[in-house]
Amino acid sequence: MIKLKYKKWLDKNIPDLTGKKIIITGCNSGIGFYTCLNLAYKNATIIMACRNLNKALDAKNKILEILPNACLDILLLDVSSLSSIDNFINEYVSKYQSFDVLINNAGVYHLKQTYTNDGYELVMTTNYLGAYYLTNKILPYRNKDKESRIVFTTSIASKWAKIDYNDFFLKNNYKTMKIYANSKLAISRYMIYLANKEIDNLKVVASHPGISSTNLLDPNKGGVSRWFSKLGNLFLKIFTHNANKASLSSVYVASSNKVNNKDLYGPRGLFEISGYPKLRKFSKLAYQDLDKHIMFSNDLLHFDN
């Protein structure tokens, strides 16, 4: 059952967000859904940027059952499609002109080796390349009169990643866990690079949810068997926290007055698996090859930063 479970924590740690326009990608389920719910509770205007409009409408209605006065708007966005990102930005800017917070939440995991219409591997594109492209394209439309924020979602899996820029999409040796970890290392490097630019009135921050019981291990999406899905999700329910609590790290970095540029927040518990948000550190890998990484990504997408 969906509940506003962490109301006391939200009231203590998150300011009133009336007038704030917050874009959240992939928020029709899982951690993104609860990020949307919790920020809507604090009176933000939420733009639900989702690729499945029916699921997004269902999610919106569920939130309105709890928060009848929530300000929620659905716009079509598939972050794995460059043309969809362009269309989203055009539609968003024509309607809202500017934004206060962009939360790059959309992510996938454990898929079979699949390529998008643009010719890029799907996991890396959804988790990194699309977020990179979206952020670069929409950044000029941030609210420049007040503080704006860009939020990236990384993962503790990034600590075990190893990116080979000669085989960025792992065409030669595709492994589901490796492409996922690499995508999260890639987004961490971009976050640090962008934060280092110290753009006026902009905070670039990151969160990681620890490990949560979500729909990531879905056998219907491919890449994982039904028995593995059942065992994996059972493990997640026993030893990790729920998607609602996992969302609090994103909620915090998107809105707290105590967050600084370049901060990373994740669960405070053992091995950063679960718990309320706490200031964390990126691995040393995240600080390597920053310039090379950006040049590679720009060349891949054929635009200048």
Protein model, in words:
With 305 residues, the chain is of the alpha/beta class. It has helices spanning 7-13, 30-41, 53-66, 82-96, 122-138, 176-196, 226-239, 243-246, 248-255, 290-301, and strands spanning 21-25, 45-50, 71-76, 101-104, 148-153, 202-207, 212-213, 241-242, 264-267, 277-280. The protein has a single domain (18-301), classed as 3-Layer(aba) Sandwich (Rossmann fold), CATH 3.40.50. The longest helix is centred in the middle third of the chain and has 21 residues, at 176-196. The chain is built from 10 helices and 10 strands. The strands form 2 sheets. It has an 8-stranded mixed beta sheet, with helices on both faces. A two-stranded parallel ribbon has the order 7-8. Helices cover 41% and strands 15% of the residues. The model has no long low-confidence stretch (mean pLDDT 90).
Secondary structure blueprint with pairings:
Blueprint: H1 7-13, E1 21-25, H2 30-41, E2 45-50, H3 53-66, E3 71-76, H4 82-96, E4 101-104, H5 122-138, E5 148-153, H6 176-196, E6 202-207, E7 212-213, H7 226-239, E8 241-242, H8 243-246, H9 248-255, E9 264-267, E10 277-280, H10 290-301
Parallel strand pairs: 1-2, 1-4, 2-3, 4-5, 5-6, 6-9, 7-8
Antiparallel strand pairs: 9-10
Report strand %: 5-15%
End-to-end gap: 44 Å
CATH architecture: 3-Layer(aba) Sandwich
Low-confidence regions = none
Secondary-structure element string? HEHEHEHEHEHEEHEHHEEH
Q: What is the class in the CATH system? A: Alpha Beta
CATH topology: Rossmann fold
Query: Number of helical segments?
Result: 10
Q: CATH superfamily, please?
A: NAD(P)-binding Rossmann-like Domain
Q: pLDDT average, as an integer?
A: 90
Oligomeric state, counting identical vs distinct chains: single chain
Q: What value does the Rg take, in angstroms?
A: 18 Å
Overall 3D shape:
globular
Structural class: alpha/beta
Spatial arrangement of strands, main beta sheet:
3-2-1-4-5-6-9-10
Q: How does the major sheet shape up?
A: 8 strands, mixed
**How many β-strand stretches?**
10
Tally of discrete structural domains: 1
Portion of residues within helices: 40-55%
